[in-house]
Amino acid sequence: MSAYKFRVLLDSDKNQEIFRDIVINREETFETFYNAIVASFNFTGDQMASFYMSNDEWDKGFEITLMDMSFDEDMPEPIAIMSENKLIDFVKDPDQKVILVYDFMRMWIFLIELIDIVKETVDAPKVVMSVGIAPPEDSRMIDMEEGYEDEFDLDEDFEDEFGDEFEDGYDNEDYGNGGYDDYDY
Predict the structure, then answer these.
(1) Contact criterion met (CB below 8 Å) for 106 and 140
(2) What H or E segment, with its residue span, contains residue 172?
(3) Counting CB atoms within 10 angstroms of each CB, which of 12, 15, 62, 172 has the fewest?
């Protein structure tokens, strides 16, 4: 049996390289690989994530999810789950590229490349090289679409469906005296 040696590069806003080289047995699942990656970057691993098989241009291809989030049993394609799929079944090219998206709100992106196939096996995934200090997991702002904040500017005067502006307070005249007595309760 042999093992894969992957380089896992954290896509960072800063101009510094942050990567880990991880050796993992070819028969391990994507879930085991995922856990090794997040642990090596000191992330908690409590967020949704997906691997995407990729090509030389780093395009997202086939998705392998952390958990089955499908709601429709009649989906045209089955959902691939990390715990049910082994690396050896998807890693076919000598320089296979894979993308891991972790925390879909903060959008941490890991660019993963197979850099070697080693003849030895390992008891558990291990980090054989670590370069750079990973930023804290919560250091990245939640990724909101541009203009989203402006879409709900609460300082603006909104008009209701009858053309009246909303007021800061309520007027008892509009709502009776506010008690249940008005309705014979």
Answers:
(1) yes
(2) helix 172-175
(3) 15
Which domains, and CATH codes, for the chain? 3-139 (3.10.290.30)
pTM higher than the cut 0.85:
no
Residue type, 114: L
Q: How far apart are CA 126 and CA 185, in angstroms?
A: 69
Tell which residue, 18, 66, 14, has the closest CA to residue 42.
18
b (16+ CB within 10 A) / e for 53-87: bbeeeeeeeeebbbeeeeeeeeeeeeebbbeebeb
91 vs 62: CA distance, rounded Å:
12
Residues lower than pLDDT 70 in the chain: 69-78, 143-185
Q: Which helix (H) or strand (E) holds 107?
A: none
